[in-house]
Design the sequence.
């Protein structure tokens, strides 16, 4: 199954790494993929990285693991194609 995981914090990373471990295709979403290197140090190589909208478009199911104070902003970005 293809899954989108919005959020590059410890929750998003733990979920996406585990999904990949279980054999799913996971794409983690962030505002700026090109600037997320350090944040994603513990990302499995099997986990793809994209923008919030790319991750949302990729997933058949979407996990929202963004900071609660900014979740609506992140979801607005995710909704843009
Ligand atoms: N950490 C825990 O132990 C824990 C436990 C229980 C529940 N939670 C909840 O799980 C969720 C994720 O927690 P977390 O610690 O993994 O991550 P987090 O640090 O709370 O959130 C990181 C994510 O929020 C996004 N974000 C931050 N500011 C933003 C803004 N202005 N606009 C859009 N997006 C923004 C970041 O985007 P970028 O990638 O672009 O930086 C990043 O993807 C939170 O709601 C938290 O309360 C966390």
Sequence:
């Amino acid at each position: 199954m293809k899954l989108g995981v919005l959020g590059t914090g410890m929750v998003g990373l733990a979920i996406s790494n585990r999904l990949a471990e279980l054999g799913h295709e996971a794409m983690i979403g962030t505002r700026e993929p090109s600037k997320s290197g350090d944040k994603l140090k513990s990302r499995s190589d099997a986990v793809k990285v994209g923008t919030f909208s790319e991750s949302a478009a990729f997933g058949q199911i979407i996990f929202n693991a963004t900071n609660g104070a900014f979740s609506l902003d992140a979801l607005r970005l995710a909704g843009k194609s």
Summary: The chain has three helices and four strands. The mean pLDDT is 95. Residues 4 and 62 are 5 Å apart (CA to CA).
